[in-house]
Design brief:
By secondary structure, this protein is α/β, with parallel strands linked by helices. It has a single domain, classed as Rossmann fold. Helix content is 30%, strand content 27%. The protein is built from seven helices and 13 strands. Strands 1, 4, 5, 8, 9, 10 and 11 form a seven-stranded parallel β-sheet that branches. A two-stranded antiparallel sheet has the order 2-3. Helix 2 packs antiparallel against helix 3 and helix 3 crosses helix 4. The structure holds uracil. The site of uracil has 12 residues, from helix 7. Uracil binds next to helix 7.
């Protein structure tokens, strides 16, 4: 069974599972929920069922750029001396490489938005699915490099529903000994947010909005529907 990550319409057994409320997860440590009015404006357009795929994809990219801006606000800098046309001066560059890992395929638009903020980011594509029998995460596509020299890597996947694929993606990245990891999503359900934060208390989680919960088939409500299908026009 696949996680409800935009790649499957398999029913998830959410019936009977107690879900936390929004209030219960609002103050989790290391969880950052955007407060930016421009984000709220774009989220209205993104959620609207009448927004067609080309505009939807464009909005995902723009929201990815806004989230990238928020999530990179505490990155380490290195001082260097440069010459302006007038004189020498001290200036700063990002200290160390930055990676972004889109979880296929729904994470692609967010990664693109990320690249618009930091063009030389390394993009590590990752395709995950669950083995039905063992419930282990299987990497069906993995372009993570063998040699890693990054200060931080961001796993990006728009919908944090049950948290399964986000937890698995961070597990994969943790094997690469990257000093700092973060997760970036657009909408989270309290259930997935709590699970991710409990499974990986050492990462920062950035989201645009926190929704009410999950319906019986694991979709976030009110949500926006299937983020993969809406980006790529596959209904
Ligand atoms: N994946 C989606 O694309 N949408 C949801 O609501 C949940 C998971």
């Amino acid at each position: 069974m696949l996680e409800a990550s935009g790649e499957s319409h398999t029913k998830l057994p959410m019936q009977g599972i107690a879900q936390p409320t929004r209030a219960e997860v609002l103050n989790l440590p290391r969880v950052h929920i955007s407060q930016h009015p421009v984000m709220a404006h774009k989220m209205r357009l993104l959620r609207d069922r009448h927004t067609a795929s080309p505009e939807f994809y464009q909005l995902v990219k723009e929201i990815g750029s806004l989230l990238a801006y928020e999530a990179t606000s505490s990155l380490a800098l290195r001082e260097q001396t440069i010459e302006t046309p007038l004189q020498e001066t001290k200036a700063y560059r990002l200290a160390g490489g930055i990676g972004v890992t889109p979880v296929l395929r729904a994470g692609l638009g967010l990664a693109e938005g990320f690249r618009q903020v930091i063009p030389d980011v390394q993009v590590w594509h990752l395709g995950l699915r669950r083995d039905e029998r063992t419930l282990q995460a299987l990497e069906y596509y993995n372009r993570l490099p063998h040699e890693v020299d990054l200060q931080v890597c961001y796993a990006v996947d728009p919908m944090l529903a049950t948290g399964g694929s986000a937890i698995d993606a961070i597990n994969v990245l943790k094997r690469r000994n990257i000093p700092r990891l973060s997760y970036i999503g657009i909408i989270a359900a309290p259930y997935g947010l709590l699970r991710l934060s409990q499974a990986h208390p050492d990462i920062d989680i950035y989201i645009a909005e926190l929704d009410e919960g999950l319906n019986d088939v694991g979709y976030i409500v009110p949500g926006l529907g299937d983020a993969g299908d809406r980006q790529f026009g596959t209904f």
